[in-house]
From TrEMBL:
<dbReference type="InterPro" id="IPR050309">
    <property type="entry name" value="Type-B_Carboxylest/Lipase"/>
</dbReference>
<dbReference type="InterPro" id="IPR019826">
    <property type="entry name" value="Carboxylesterase_B_AS"/>
</dbReference>
<dbReference type="Pfam" id="PF00135">
    <property type="entry name" value="COesterase"/>
</dbReference>
<protein>
    <recommendedName>
        <fullName>Carboxylic ester hydrolase</fullName>
        <ecNumber>3.1.1.-</ecNumber>
    </recommendedName>
</protein>
<keyword id="KW-0378">Hydrolase</keyword>
<feature type="domain" description="Carboxylesterase type B">
    <location>
        <begin position="28"/>
        <end position="561"/>
    </location>
</feature>
<dbReference type="GO" id="GO:0016787">
    <property type="term" value="F:hydrolase activity"/>
</dbReference>
<comment type="similarity">
    <text>Belongs to the type-B carboxylesterase/lipase family.</text>
</comment>
<dbReference type="InterPro" id="IPR029058">
    <property type="entry name" value="AB_hydrolase_fold"/>
</dbReference>
<dbReference type="InterPro" id="IPR002018">
    <property type="entry name" value="CarbesteraseB"/>
</dbReference>
């Protein structure tokens, strides 16, 4: 009787472990130098295929006390037997606006999503995801890559980094050099390099990818001298370090404004000792509670601060030239072939693109009847001047401004207002299209053999209002075709007067996941059929339109880019 029961138990157990013809072992505990990483068995959305996940692995010490606003320090062991992971996503980093989910000072963690058969004997290609959020907000939790892991057989790591003032405050000198958030990312990549093999990931062929501010971070990590050897491929989705919103070229102004609102700006300014002045303000900020620092963000209007310099000219909190992570202005570094060669920038492969109507995001939340308020000629004139100022280092005469004005504001509506799509085109080109093309051109001009692939993403949303003024794929819609954890409220937010097409959506999803994971595994987004997606070069500047019927075209938004 006992033998029969044992046979039934073994048969049942075996049946549970055989899924799609693959034997699946439980997620093993991994003993690291810093402690024990405990994994959990999960199932992919829709398919139920198994995978393993390790939640909340600390890669840095909590940035508290003297480590607040300081470069991250590698996490040290609390004892070999200590379990250092969690059974769920850990809280996000402190940010503004504050999300409804939990936030924590102890937030520098990463998560590993692994195929069930990954092991040191069966290494998988690794992709490290860097979330977006304008350097102001975001977290790892919304991005669940179960289908990429199970269907495409890659290992994916999602990381968290410090945000807003916690990660990107800079006084413009040694008191607070800035870039702490991307230095967190850098330390996470170092952790992956040193530890991922034990989980079954290949440490010598890592792809980093991100969207929006995460994409700008990817390009910054590609350009910094400190990341050489940490990754081999980069995927940029809707953002580069050349995007106007990515860099804070006058961080001292934000530092003063923020310190003042946090009641930390010293009353007496000594022009002969600005370093000491900044250090006093920083010491005060370090003594504040996390809540007080979050609240200080809301005491002044960040957008108004940036409008003082021109909304599209720089970020409030963003990347800075710190003579360390970024030794010089990124545009200068991109033109310096010897620098690019010396620091391995040209040794990597790049996949980069944008959506076909990125700047729909700028009118989210604006009622249709209010569109006219933002498209008047009086509003467009200063916007155009701001954009031209931000892109050119020389004054532009009235004739030059008139050319830009003519291309982007005519023909006008019968009431004299600018067509809304023209308004969106201007911001898309300034913030996304032109920086992308400049980044790609710089790479292939420095080394024509550098593998660069460019795309335009068109998810073909199904319009709720066919007569509405806004069409196309919004900023962030590509995320819905990669990850399966995007909350429903985000779907409604991103789709904005549109729905997902029930027929085209899964076709595009399958294609896009294939492109990014094939690129990570082979360096080519369409391996075996190179003519389907030719490399980007300066002669033809070819790119792929990713849609339900992909096609290769030349010179993305050519007229607008040329202008």
């Amino acid at each position: 009787m006992d033998f029969i029961l044992l046979k039934v138990f073994v048969f049942t157990l075996a049946a549970c472990l055989i899924i799609d013809g693959v034997y699946v072992a439980a997620a093993p505990d991994i003993q690291l130098v810093s402690g024990l990483a405990r994994g959990y068995d999960k199932q992919a959305s829709e398919t139920g295929k198994p995978y393993s996940v390790y939640y909340g692995i600390p890669f840095a010490e909590p940035p508290v006390g003297e480590l607040r606003f300081a470069p991250p320090r590698p996490y040290t062991s609390r004892g070999a037997g200590s379990v250092i992971t969690s059974n769920r996503f850990r809280p996000s980093c402190y940010q503004f606006p504050a999300p409804p989910a939990l936030m924590s000072k102890d937030c520098l963690h990463l998560n590993i999503f692994s195929p069930p058969d990954a092991s040191p004997a069966r290494l998988k290609k690794v992709m490290v995801w860097i979330h977006g959020g304008g350097f102001m907000n975001g977290a790892a939790e919304p991005y669940i890559p179960s289908r990429m892991v199970t269907d495409r057989d890659v290992m994916i790591v999602t990381i968290q980094y410090r945000l807003a003032a916690f990660g990107f405050l800079s006084s413009g000198d040694d008191a607070q050099s800035g870039n702490m958030g991307v230095k967190d990312q850098l330390l996470a990549l170092r952790w992956v390099k040193d530890n991922i093999r034990q989980f079954g990931g290949f440490p010598d062929d890592v792809t980093i990818f991100g969207e929006s501010a995460g994409s700008a971070s990817v390009s910054a990590l590609s350009l910094t001298p400190r990341a050489k050897g940490l990754f081999t491929k980069a995927i940029l989705q809707s953002g580069t370090i050349l995007s106007s919103w990515a860099m804070a070229y006058d961080p001292k102004q934000t530092f003063y404004q923020y310190a003042k609102k946090a009641d930390c700006l010293p009353l007496i300014y000594n022009p002969w000792n600005t370093l000491g002045y900044h250090q006093s303000a920083l010491n005060c900020l370090k003594a504040k509670t996390a809540k007080e620092l979050v609240d200080a963000h809301s005491k002044y209007d960040l957008e108004a601060l940036v409008f003082d310099k021109g909304f599209w000219e720089q970020a409030a909190f963003g990347l800075v030239v710190d003579n360390d992570f970024l030794p010089r202005n990124p545009a200068e570094l991109m033109k310096d072939k010897s620098y690019l060669q010396q620091h391995g920038v040209l040794e990597r492969s790049y996949l980069m693109g944008i959506t076909d109507n990125e700047s729909i995001l700028t009118v989210l939340g604006v009622r249709k009847e209010s569109y006219g308020n933002i498209t008047s000629a009086s509003n467009m004139a200063p916007l155009i001047q701001s954009i031209v100022r931000g892109k050119l280092s020389m004054p532009v005469d009235s004739d030059g401004l008139n050319v830009v004005d003519f291309i982007y504001t005519f023909p006008r509506d019968s009431d004299g207002r600018i067509p809304l799509q023209k308004f969106l085109d201007l911001q898309t080109d300034d913030s996304f299209t032109v920086p992308l093309v400049l980044f790609a051109r710089a790479l292939v001009e420095a080394a024509p053999a550098t593998p660069v692939y460019m795309y335009l993403f068109d998810s073909e949303p199904k319009l709720k209002d066919p007569n509405g003024p806004i069409r196309g794929t919004n900023h962030g819609m590509d995320l819905l075709h990669e990850f399966d954890g995007i909350p429903e409220e985000s779907l409604k937010f991103l789709y904005f007067y549109a729905d997902r097409d029930p027929v085209k959506f899964p076709i595009i999803t399958n294609a896009f996941r294939g492109y990014v994971t094939d690129f990570a595994k082979t360096g080519n987004p369409s391996p075996g059929v190179p003519n389907d997606w030719p490399r980007y070069d300066r002669q033809r500047e070819q790119y792929l339109v990713i849609s339900s019927q992909p096609e290769v075209r030349e010179r993305i938004f050519a007229q607008r880019v040329s202008l």
